[in-house]
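Batch manifest, entry 17 of 40.
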Amino acid sequence: MNSTLSPNSSPRVRRKGSSRRPRAVSHLPPFTPETHDAAVSAIRNYLKGRTTYDSFPVSFRLIVLDSKLEVRKALQCLLLNGVVSAPLWNSEKSSFAGMFTVSDIIHLIQYYYQNSSYDSASSDVETFRLESLRDIEKSLGVATPPLLREHPSASLYDASKLIIQTHARRVPLLDHDSETGHEIIVSILTQYRLLKFVSINCAKEIQQLHLPLRKLNIGTYVVDSSPRDDPPEGYNRFHPIATATLSTPVFDVVHMFSARGISAVPIIDEDGIVVNLYETVDVITLVRLGAYQSLDLTISEALNQRSPDFPGVVICTASDSLGTLMQLIKKRRVHRLVVVEGEEEERRGGKKGRLLGIITLSDVLRYIIGETGIGESAEPAPALAQDQNLVPVAESSGRI
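Output type: C-alpha cells
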C-alpha cells in the first residue's frame, strides 16, 4: 500500500547538533598607505617591462585619412566607423602628417562662426581640406598640436610619459618599412586603451588601490561652491570647472571647448546639481546633419537630438577609491567621471548630487605614472606583476 508523507504523518528526524568550525584567518594584507604605494610602484614597473605592442588588441582596424581629403568626407568617415580621431597621411611625401580629431572640427566651427555668415560657414566647412587645419589654429591663436609619434617597441611607461608631458589624449605608433624606408602607421595608443590594459593585467595590484580619489589629488575640484549674495559679472561659483545650464546656447559651450582645450562641460541646474554632460562628440552629431544653424539651439534642445545609444553620464564621489575607478574602466568605456557631493559632503552641509569636480583619464594616468622621467632604468618588477599572464585589450567599436 502506497502512502504519501505529509507534515502530520512524516516521521520526525532527530538532527545531530551542529558544531561551527572557526572561520579561517584571512591572509590578505591590511590596506594601508604603504600597500597602496607599493601597488602603484608595481604597476609602474610592470609598464616599464611591457611595450606598446603588448597593448594591441587581438584584432583591430585602423582608419587613415589622406591630408588632402575634404573635411566633410573625413567627418563622414569617422562617424561611419564609430571613431572620433584618425591619423593623417601625406601621400606626396609618403609620411605621417598628424591627427584629425574632434578638436579640429570644434576649432573650424568657431573660426567660421566668428568670421562668416551661416551660409558661407556651411559651404566653406564642406569644402575645406584637412591639410589646412593648422592655419585655422593659428588664426584662433590656438597652440598647434605637436607631431607626436612613438615606436611599437617603446615601453608603455615611456609612451605614457609622452602622452602626459604633451597633454595629448593619444599617440600614434609608427615604424619604418625596411625596404623603402617610408613611415608606416601601425596603430594608435589611447589613454583608455592603456588604462584598460593596466586594469586587466594588474588586477591584484588594483585591489590594493584603496585610497580615495580626492586624497590622491586625482582630478580637478571646485574651490568654493558657496553662493554669493552679489556675485560679479561672469562669476563662476564652480571655478575652475567650466559649466553650463540647459538654457545655455550650444555655441557658447563650443567656445569653452576651443578656448579651454576641454572635451566636456557638466550641465547643472540652479542648485548646482549635475543633470547632464555635453561633450564635443555631441556637437559633431549636429554638424553631420549639416545643421550648422543648430549651434544656436539651447543645450536642452540639442540634447534631444542626441543618439539614443548614449551611455549616460558616469558619476562618482570624492571618497570613491582609485581601485574602484580602475575596475570601472575594465568593465566599460569611460573617458571622464563627474564628481558630485555624496553623503559625506551632505553631512557637512553640502547638497547631494551637486557638482564637486571632474576626473579625466589624463588625471588617472598622470597619477599612476608619477613624476619619474622618461628613459630611467626600470627597477625589477615584483614577482606578483611579472608572473601575470599578459591579456591583450579586446577591441570594440567605439571612440579612439
